[in-house]
Design goal:
Radius of gyration: 19 Å
CATH topology: Double-stranded beta-helix
Strand order of the largest sheet: 1-2-3-16-7-18-4-5
Number of domains: 1
Strand content: 25-35%
Order of helices and strands: HEEHEHEEEEEHHEEEEEEHEEEE
Distance between the termini: 37 Å
Largest sheet: 8 strands, mixed
Bound molecules: fe (ii) ion
CATH class: Alpha Beta
Organism: Oleispira antarctica RB-8
InterPro entries: AtsK-like (IPR051323), TauD-like_sf (IPR042098), TauD/TfdA-like (IPR003819)
Number of helices: 6
Shape: globular
Keywords: Dioxygenase, Iron, Metal-binding, Oxidoreductase
Oligomer: single chain
Protein name: Putative taurine catabolism dioxygenase
CATH architecture: 4-Layer Sandwich
GO molecular function, one term: metal ion binding
Length: about 290
């Protein structure tokens, strides 16, 4: 059995081939190039890989993440979560700031997004490792944005084929302020550099077409007037909400979930701040999205 067959024989594939649980895989073991390629292949095929019951030091988590590519970094001119005080590639996503002083995002709702869409080169892959999950901590909900594209009517695919989406960097706004908003650029120009990306992008490895849409940040469609653009955004969001292309992950401590950050977006609801929910995130560098 080669590395790929071995990994595949231990998989539980989730409905609609969206997500797979990889059983009997200890992510702390050092793997060879073929196994690393097999892991990436599985990720591209199923878009989300779930590894249960992993006991990982930071070093082990970082080493495992590098099997998927180089670590994501960004500079102060184009900031991202945690880039202000970056000493480690691990960013704490959590609300228990008494215990985890460096944790971000609190317990507010985090609208559907993929990581770093406002940057020139958004992450290709991200992963979360659950370290403290109280009962009642909410799921993370992933959406298959390849399916979201495929399920669009033909006329809509033609209509949006050449549109670019501009996402304004949220880290030039006061931290914690929710800025999920279609912008009227004639009235407000949010601060920071912008990098327009194709609204329909192609996956850098699989070539799959992806609906590259989010609801989390200030954004606009380039060269469309406010009324046309905001209506189109609303229409596309309604489409995504109307189709069944999601996976909801109910967290347990020591879960490690890796996702293809090109072909998926993710969401979590707000929750009671007394419930502790803390995860470590690592993100992997990506390339400039192409049409
Ligand atoms: Fe995220």
């Amino acid at each position: 059995m080669n590395e790929y067959e071995q990994l595949e024989s231990n998989l539980i594939v989730l409905p609609n081939d969206f997500g797979a649980i990889v059983n009997d895989f200890n992510v702390t073991k050092i793997i060879n190039t073929e196994a690393s390629a097999a892991l990436k292949d599985l990720l591209h095929r199923y878009k989300i890989l779930i590894f249960k019951k992993q006991a990982l030091s930071d070093e082990e988590l970082i080493r495992f993440s590098t099997y998927f590519g180089e670590l994501f970094t960004t500079g102060k001119h184009n900031p991202a979560l945690g880039s202000d005080k970056k000493t480690s590639p691990i960013v704490y996503i959590g609300n228990n700031t008494e215990k985890y002083k460096q944790a971000y995002l609190g317990h507010q709702e985090v609208f559907r997004h993929s990581d770093h869409q406002w940057l020139e080169k958004p992450s290709s892959v991200s992963m979360l490792y659950a370290i403290e999950i109280d009962e009642g901590a909410p799921d993370t909900l992933w959406t298959d944005m390849v399916a979201a594209y495929q399920l669009l009517p033909k006329q809509m695919k033609e209509r949006i084929a050449d549109i670019d989406i501009i996402t304004f960097n949220p880290f030039f706004r006061p931290f914690g302020e929710v800025r999920s908003k279609y912008i009227d650029i004639l009235k407000t120009v949010p601060p920071g550099n912008t990098f327009p990306h194709p609204l329909v992008r192609s996956h850098s490895t699989t070539g799959d077409k992806i609906l590259y849409l989010h609801e989390a940040y200030e954004m606009e469609f380039k060269d469309l007037n406010f009324q046309t653009g905001s209506l189109l955004h609303h229409h596309l969001v309604s489409h995504i909400n109307s189709i069944n292309c999601e996976y909801s992950h109910s967290w347990e401590k020591d879960d490690l979930v890796v996702w293809d950050n090109q072909s998926t977006s993710h969401y979590r609801t707000s929750f009671d701040g007394e419930i502790s929910r803390v995860l470590k995130r690592i993100s992997i560098a990506g390339s400039k999205p192409i049409r």
